Amino acid sequence: MQIEMVDLKGQYNKIKTEVDQAILSCISNTSFINGPAVREFQYNLEQYLGVKHVIPCANGTDSLQIAMMALGLRPGDEVICPAFTYVATGEVIGLLGLTPVMVDVDPKTFNLTANDIEKAITPNTRAIVPVHLYGQSCDMEPILKLADKHNLYVIEDNAQAIGADYTFSDGTVAKTGTIGHIGSTSFFPSKNLGCYGDGGALMTNDDDLAKKMRMIANHGQEKKYYHKVLGCNSRLDTIQAAILNVKIKHLDLYSQARNAMASFYDTAFVKVDELEIPERQFNSTHVFHQYTLKVKNPKRNELQKYLSDKGIPSMIYYPLPLYKQEAFQQFVSSDFVLPTSEDLCDQVLSLPIHTEMNSDHMNFICDSVKSFFNK
Ligand SMILES: Cc1ncc(COP(=O)(O)O)c(C=O)c1O
Asked: With a threshold of 0.90, does the pTM exceed it?
């Protein structure tokens, strides 16, 4: 039995006719750069997310960079981000000469909390980057309140949670990525809404920020060959936009399929003492970009090897907190430690979850995990 972490081929085969047609139409009308499919996708994503502006760009890392440039952050400004995240979140902060202030995460939800953020705020803090890790929203309401109190910008890194809904205490529901001043996302192929190459986008309800971000993504120009600010070249490729226009129609079904798998895993593992299943936050839906277990005893690596020997892939997202990466040593003292991030790096294991899994795959994975623990 062939089991993949992500089955892009199986997913493509189901939408092949439509995707092939969309790609061919871009090629036949040679609209390679900023073609009609890009504007169409911008509109489709604005409608889907219920946000005023979507600014497509080249990838998720660029989207974070463009967001920070548009907010006018300057060298020396501190930006708070989780230590337990993909490198891009902190990398961009350092690359712009800003100071990444890495903060611990909640051990149950893997996400930043307002409490931990507050302890890290200094007079130099300008922005917070909550990452909706693995597909579930950070608890945004207290984070927004804190940001408001200290006059800070909030940039949501929504690369892993597109489609998730966050519910405020007054019952208002908003899609992740549309809650802070700016939201950023990635369409990397394995993402829940992934294209067939690189892609990304920014989201905002603020007209001025939208204008600035559009300008920065386009070499700092509003009018061709007149450059107001230093920008970059960050475009969503037309062919990728055409693919996304097909895939966005399936996004909610994809999220449902991922949730069904997550529930199946939960049921199988809830009684295995050595495992902790992912916690669902009461005010967020989960889109399960990853299904991540915590292996409570120190057997995580052995379990991974055991599964691998049976042909079952699994991944450790992430093996090191940002501050332990060589590239981040410049931002911390040698004794800097965040205990939860360290524990999570030792304990997390993400199992295959994608839209094409069948019950044979699921049963085989669950039986294999349980047999490792002699259950
Ligand atoms: C949390 C997070 N932020 C940012 C990114 C960067 O996205 P990209 O790979 O499109 O640059 C990713 C993608 O892997 C991610 O998972």
From this structure: yes
